[in-house]
Amino acid sequence: MGKKAVVLLSGGMDSATAMAMAREEGFELYALSIMYGQKNEVELEKAKKIAKHLGATEHLIVPLSLKIIGGSSLTSMESPVPKGRSIEEIGKRIPSTYVPARNTVFLSVALAWAEVLEAEDMFIGINALDYSGYPDCRLEYIKAFEAMAHLATKAGVEGRMQLRIHTPLIGLRKAEIIAKGVALGVDYSLTHSCYDPLPHGGACGECDSCKLRLKGFQEAGLRDPITYG
Amino acid sequence: MGKKAVVLLSGGMDSATAMAMAREEGFELYALSIMYGQKNEVELEKAKKIAKHLGATEHLIVPLSLKIIGGSSLTSMESPVPKGRSIEEIGKRIPSTYVPARNTVFLSVALAWAEVLEAEDMFIGINALDYSGYPDCRLEYIKAFEAMAHLATKAGVEGRMQLRIHTPLIGLRKAEIIAKGVALGVDYSLTHSCYDPLPHGGACGECDSCKLRLKGFQEAGLRDPITYG
Question: Which terminus in chain A has less CB density within 10 A, N or C?
């Protein structure tokens, strides 16, 4: 078995692909998902299936309500998720689906688990090309988190842990992510991207996340295997 | 009303004092406590009383289980908290009560709330003199977190938030913290420090946290108003 890696797994296609890439690099996979009060909590059921599909040794789902903190249309029932925006509009300005400090909170929990597991590697499936402009999806942010993490833990201070945060998708377009995942055997029918799924779990096809996903499959020349509508 | 500040409030004497100092500086107080599965969860009841006592506008208690991640005698029922160590022993090496990445997780949640509140100031009652040697209680760690936080949020990227993390106790001895708090009217009978309280909530007097507290009161020439045993 290879070295351990903690992989943040949302249940979406990016994190599933990042996890497959971690597996390809020979890491033993410890998948971490957060139940934070997201409207699309159905993604956690997908995350369980993906963790199993990709052979994770363990999958931990940590409840941590960011909903009670608020500030996002992705957690508030009063605030609708934007729909029907063009690809050009997406990424022009940070949308209301931004969840304050989400990746910082997630990476912090991942750091805690990594220290307990004695893992020095973490994977996060952020990408900064076909994305919504979230500040905590940029490489300079990840590097600053890494620098902080070096000082944050007992294992770090004692010289037993030199954390590396892997961002294998950071420079890839959505279509390239899909092509990479398909090549690695990722079953995208198990993934969920929609911010505002229908009651039966089908994707809306109109939110930013659906739009970026559909564009990715189109550009990759592949059919998206999930159900819309 | 002054500017808003998010204050991490554990229910212990350090965070209560830091909160009183934030109030003295004119900040409007937003107290944040985390229910993380600590053995001394009774401290959260104290935190509620302290938040009220010091006039917090709001007190948020976020459930976030670090217990399921493990790695600490402060959250594990199988692992006892060290008892009866001398002051000389405490601080020589990081003890088993260290909770992996705890302050990183707490500061991340505080950052999320600060962004929602449009607060630019956070207070944390760490001190690096009479303490247990925890890595995430050092100023260099806090500075690295601050640098990361500048890149992490929408408000930061849009130039609306320049986060400052205040550590007013960092250079103070325990006795000085107590003297400062008394001068500011902190009622220390409302605080809780013990890592392993008795079933009725009384402090054990033997864990590192009790030892540091008792030494502080002794050196300050004051009587500790809480019950031991």
Answer: N
